[in-house]
Design goal:
By secondary structure, the protein is mostly helical. The chain is 42% helix and 6% strand. The radius of gyration is 12 Å and the shape is flat.
């Protein structure tokens, strides 16, 4: 994902709703697709916090 696309995602999340209350339904979990342990940790974290699986994003690819 390019820097611009990542910026757009964060901007959308930031401006999405002024009434948003922090919690499982308003949380996104990001993981580095190049690191298997990052992906596993992201899914584990989401499961433990009750964050819906659809909000775990593993397609991100950070520079090594």
């Amino acid at each position: 994902m390019t820097g611009f696309a990542l910026f757009f995602v964060f901007l959308t999340l930031l401006l999405g709703s002024s009434d948003a209350v922090p919690g499982p339904d308003t949380t996104a979990v990001l993981a580095n697709a190049n690191v298997n342990s990052s992906v596993a940790l992201a899914y584990y974290y989401a499961q433990q916090r009750g964050i819906p699986r659809k909000q775990v994003h593993i397609e991100l690819s950070f520079c090594k």
